[in-house]
From TrEMBL:
It comes from marine metagenome. This is Uncharacterized protein.
Amino acid sequence: MTKTLTEDQMDDLYNAAHTVDGEIVTDYSGRGMFGAECVGIILNDDCALFTFARLLDDDLAELLGNPRWDNMGLREIAYWPNVAHQSADATV
């Protein structure tokens, strides 16, 4: 079941990512996702994820749950295959 984040929740993710010098992506397709897209955070080191998680509201952290990881060379991405963002300009 895919969970969709609200604009407020996305703002919280962007703010926390900025604090840890991370970058939020909303169109990541990880291993085994077969083209499906999800929310993730690109980080310079894996320790930043702990700080990122502590900056989030408890309800948002619980909604995200445990991330999966992919190595991107010098950086890593933590992503949540079951969490998506519906952009404001998307057609329904």
